[in-house]
Specification:
Layout lengths: L1 H20 L3 H37 L1 H8 L2 H50 L7 H32 L9 H24 L4 H10 L1 H13 L6 H24 L1
Helix pairs in contact: 1-8, 1-9, 2-4, 2-9, 4-5, 4-6, 4-9, 5-6, 6-7, 6-8, 6-9, 8-9
Length: about 250
């Protein structure tokens, strides 16, 4: 798995050289700017609403009043850390839902980018057809909804765990790895579909190559640490990098 994670990370550098060489910037910037606008608006709303949700929960359960009566700095610190972890989990959960919404909206472009990338690398032409594009869109939407469901189940389970002091502090890290896997999964599936793998075959195949999915999603999230530029480039870079990593992985097999 570690080798595949490294391959996925290296594929982002290959993707940058590939985009520059073949002048694909217009396919990167248009969806990227839209993604950035939605991302900023979503994160502002999500962070504010997560704070309101945690405050309401704390007040409803009487935790704030109980802590006030205890007058313990240590207990206040423990529960403050727990509150931060819960807010982070909620933001990650919100971001997950936003991410899948954008995947559904952008599925036609992402499918085209993945196809164009492999066509250039392999020299093989993939004839364009509207019925095939619609089929790719529907497949992408179905898998996005499927991944949303499973990821929600895992996130809720981890959210419950986050209520336990100390143990719950590691849950955001676990949630982040789950996020990375499912996002990378969506990026890799465009190539799987193009090679006529059914949804169940795609799930099985990517399950055997979890490192490629985790590595792809990991760099996607790390790019968000670079304001504006990272937010604009992250989505399209992810799909091109996923296509490149899967192409070279299959070539080595």
């Amino acid at each position: 798995m570690l080798k595949e994670i490294v391959i996925a990370i290296q594929s982002y550098f290959r993707a940058h050289r590939f985009i520059s060489k073949h002048q694909l910037w217009k396919w990167i910037l248009i969806p990227g700017v839209l993604y950035m606008i939605l991302f900023v608006a979503g994160m502002i709303f999500f962070w504010a609403s997560s704070g309101a949700a945690v405050t309401y929960l704390s007040h409803s359960l009487g935790i704030d009043r109980w802590l006030h009566r205890q007058s313990s700095g240590f207990l206040s610190f423990i529960f403050m850390m727990g509150e931060i972890m819960i807010r982070l989990l909620l933001v990650l959960f919100y971001f997950s839902l936003f991410k899948y919404l954008f995947l559904i909206i952008g599925s036609p472009l992402f499918a085209y980018l993945s196809e164009k990338t492999e066509a250039i690398i392999s020299g093989k032409e993939f004839p364009f057809s509207w019925p095939q594009l619609l089929k790719d869109m529907m497949r992408g939407i179905k898998l996005a909804l499927r991944n949303t469901l499973w990821q929600t189940v895992y996130s809720i389970s981890l959210l419950i765990l986050s209520f336990f002091p100390v143990i719950g502090w590691v849950t955001p890290v676990i949630v982040l790895f789950v996020e990375c896997y499912y996002y990378g999964f969506s990026m890799l599936d465009y190539s799987c579909e193009r090679h006529k793998l059914s949804p169940s075959e795609s799930i099985e195949y990517i399950g055997k190559h979890k490192g490629l999915a985790i590595g792809n999603g990991m760099v996607f999230y790390l790019m968000h640490l670079l304001p504006i530029v990272g937010w604009v480039l992250a989505p399209a870079y992810a799909v091109i990098a996923a296509t490149i990593s899967l192409y070279y992985q299959n070539k080595e097999v």
